[in-house]
C-alpha cells in the first residue's frame, strides 16, 4: 500500500513540475499517427482505384469469345509477376501475421500484389480490390511503425489501422470498415483485437475523407435498392427465414471452394500455369454467363435494374459460385466480399421468384448479410456495411439475418487462420 502511495505521489509531483507534459484529454500523439496512416491509406486507395477504373474501362471492350483468351493471358501474366516479384500471400497470411508476428505485415511484396491484382481484377476475375488494398495499406502501416521504432500493440494498431482505412475507402463505411478489419481475424479470443477499434476508426475516417476528395466518389449508397416498405413487427422473423437461403448458398460456396482448392493443390504446377488455367476456366464461364464476370461492383446494379427469369437466376448462382471459387483457388488475386454480396442478392431474387409478393428488398439484404457472415464470420460489420451500401436503414432485420448466417456457418471456417492456430 505504501509503495502505491509513493508511486502516486511521484506521478503527481512530475505533473506539477512539468505541467507542459500533462495532457488532460484522451488525445495523444498516437492519434496523429492513426490519422497519418489513414491519409496515406486514402492516397494509396485513390491511386489504386483510379488506375483500376482505367484498366476496367479499356479491358471491358473485350466481349464474347475474346474474353477467354484475354483472361487466360491475364492469368499467365499475373502469375509471371508473382513468380518473379514474389508471392504476396492471401488473407490467411495477413491474419496470421497480425496474430502471431506482432502485427507485422511485410511490404516487400506490395509491387507484386498491386500489379497482379490489377491484371486479375481488370480482366474480369470474380474477386475485388479489398484484399489487395488491405495487404498494401496494412503493410504500409507496419512500415511507418518500424520507421518510428514502435513495437508491441502500438505497431499492431498501426497495421490494423491501415487495414481498416483500406476497407473503408472501398466500402464507404468507416465504422463498418473498422469492425471488418477486426472481425475478419475472428477466433475464440477475438476480444484482444477490439483494443484496436479506436485506431482503426480514426484511420478509417481520415482515409475515407481523402479517398472521396481525390476520387470524387459520392457518399450515398453504392447500390440503388428498391424502397423498403414500412417496417413490420415480424420483419426480423422473416429476415431470419430468408437468411436460411443465404446461409445454404454460403455452405455450397465453401464446399465448392474447398473442392476446387484441393484439385489445384493436387496438381503441382508453377503459379503462372495454374493462374492461366484459372483464367481459362473463369473466361469460359464469363463467355456463357457474362453477368458472372468481374467482382460485381457494377453488375449488382444491373441485377437490380433488370428482370430475369428463374432459370437464368439459378444459372447465374451456379456460374458465380464457380467463378469466385476458381478465382480464389487458382491464385488470382482479390477479395470475395463484394462478389459474395452479389451472390446473396441473386439468391434473394431466386427466393422472390419462388415466393412472389414477399418484401423484395428485405429478402435480398437478408440473403446478402447471411452469406457473407457465413463465409467470412463477420456478422456485426456485415450488417453495418450493408446498411450503408444499400441504403437499407432498418438495421434490426439485417443484424438478425447476419447473425443467422454466422451461427449456422460450418464449424471449420473457410479462412483457416480464423481458427486461431498458428500455421
TrEMBL record:
<feature type="transmembrane region" description="Helical">
    <location>
        <begin position="309"/>
        <end position="329"/>
    </location>
</feature>
<feature type="transmembrane region" description="Helical">
    <location>
        <begin position="392"/>
        <end position="409"/>
    </location>
</feature>
<dbReference type="GO" id="GO:0016020">
    <property type="term" value="C:membrane"/>
</dbReference>
<feature type="transmembrane region" description="Helical">
    <location>
        <begin position="236"/>
        <end position="257"/>
    </location>
</feature>
<feature type="transmembrane region" description="Helical">
    <location>
        <begin position="336"/>
        <end position="355"/>
    </location>
</feature>
<dbReference type="InterPro" id="IPR001807">
    <property type="entry name" value="ClC"/>
</dbReference>
<keyword id="KW-1133">Transmembrane helix</keyword>
<feature type="transmembrane region" description="Helical">
    <location>
        <begin position="64"/>
        <end position="85"/>
    </location>
</feature>
<dbReference type="GO" id="GO:0015108">
    <property type="term" value="F:chloride transmembrane transporter activity"/>
</dbReference>
<feature type="transmembrane region" description="Helical">
    <location>
        <begin position="31"/>
        <end position="52"/>
    </location>
</feature>
<dbReference type="InterPro" id="IPR014743">
    <property type="entry name" value="Cl-channel_core"/>
</dbReference>
<dbReference type="InterPro" id="IPR050368">
    <property type="entry name" value="ClC-type_chloride_channel"/>
</dbReference>
<keyword id="KW-0812">Transmembrane</keyword>
<feature type="transmembrane region" description="Helical">
    <location>
        <begin position="158"/>
        <end position="182"/>
    </location>
</feature>
<dbReference type="Pfam" id="PF00654">
    <property type="entry name" value="Voltage_CLC"/>
</dbReference>
<keyword id="KW-0472">Membrane</keyword>
<feature type="transmembrane region" description="Helical">
    <location>
        <begin position="194"/>
        <end position="216"/>
    </location>
</feature>
<feature type="transmembrane region" description="Helical">
    <location>
        <begin position="269"/>
        <end position="289"/>
    </location>
</feature>
<protein>
    <submittedName>
        <fullName>Chloride channel protein</fullName>
    </submittedName>
</protein>
